[in-house]
Write a structure and sequence with these properties.
Distance between the termini: 54 Å
Helix content: 55-70%
Structural class: mainly alpha
Order of helices and strands: HHHHHEEE
Strand order of the largest sheet: 1-2-3
Shape: elongated
Strand content: under 5%
Number of helices: 5
Number of domains: 2
Radius of gyration: 23 Å
Largest sheet: 3 strands, antiparallel
Amino acid sequence: MRPLLLLFIVMPILEMWVLISVGGWIGALPTIALVLLTAMIGLALLRRQGISTVMRAQQKMQAGEMPAREMAEGIFLAVGGALLLTPGFITDAVGFACLIPGVRQLIIGKLLGHIVVVRGTGYSAGPYHRPDQGPSNQGHSQHGHSPDVIEGDYEREDKNKPGKGG
C-alpha cells in the first residue's frame, strides 16, 4: 500500500512543487520549454537504446540463449520512456536513469542478482545452501533440497536431426 501511496499521491505533489519552484526562478515559458525539451531528448534516447536492445535480444535468441538481461532492459526502457513523457523534473531524472546504459545496466545487474540464482539442477529465488556443503540442514525438504528449488530436466532438440522432417 505504501509504494502506491508514494507513487500516486506524494510524487505528483513533489512534481508540482518542483515545477512551480523552477517556474518561479526561470519563468513559466522557459519551464514549459525545458519540460518539452527533456521529453524530446528522452524519446530520441529511447529510440536509440530500444533499437540496440532489440538487436541484442535477437542475436541472443538466434544463438539459442535466453535474452533475460535484454528483456529486463526493455522493461526499464519502457518505464523510462513513460516517465520522460510525464511532465516533471523528478520523473525526468528517474526516466533518464532508466535510459542511460551504464546506470540502467548497473541497476539491472543488481536486480537480476536478487531475482534468480541458478545453482546445480534447480532455480532458486534466493540464497541456496546445498545440504552436503554444511552442517545445517534447516529449510530443506526430505529430499535434501531447498523448498525454493524447482527440479527439472531438459532436452535440446536439434533441428537437423534425421527423422525430424528438416
